[in-house]
Amino acid sequence: MHNFFAAILYDPRIGVSHIALYMALYRCWIKEGGTGPVSAFSHEIMPIAKIAGSATYHRVLRELDEYGYLKYEPSFNRMRRSRMYLAEPAALDAGN
Q: With contact defined as beta carbons under 8 Å apart, do 87 and 69 qualify?
């Protein structure tokens, strides 16, 4: 977790919504045992991250993926959860 904050410290692209979403995903990752991907529906994560709009949620999630803070695998199936892989600490250090 410390590496995430170190990585975003000087990244001007990261805003409050990015941090809130990453923290919500991190919380779910811990609840799921702290290994592997986070599997979740957007309606499960959005209230935790205090994000009200699905467009904002998906934009921020795609940006975190694009910036290298996580890997997002959308399911494109309403009955199947999407998967988000939080970046390894070393990858965060190397990325920024």
A: yes
List pLDDT tens digits, range 1-31.
Answer: 668 888 899 999 999 999 999 999 999 999 9
What stretches of 9-95 show up as alpha helix (H) in DSSP? 16-31, 42-49, 54-67, 89-95
End-to-end Cα spacing for the chain: 15
**What is the residue extent of each domain of the chain?**
2-95
Fold of 2-95: Arc Repressor Mutant, subunit A (1.10.10)
pTM beyond 0.85, yes or no? yes
Q: What is the pLDDT of residue 19?
A: 96
Name every residue whose Cβ is closer than 8 Å to that of residue 37 and which is 6 or more positions away in sequence.
73, 83, 84, 85
List the strands of the sheet with 82-86, edge to edge.
Answer: 38-40, 82-86, 70-73
3-state secondary structure of 55: helix
Residue 62 amino acid letter: R
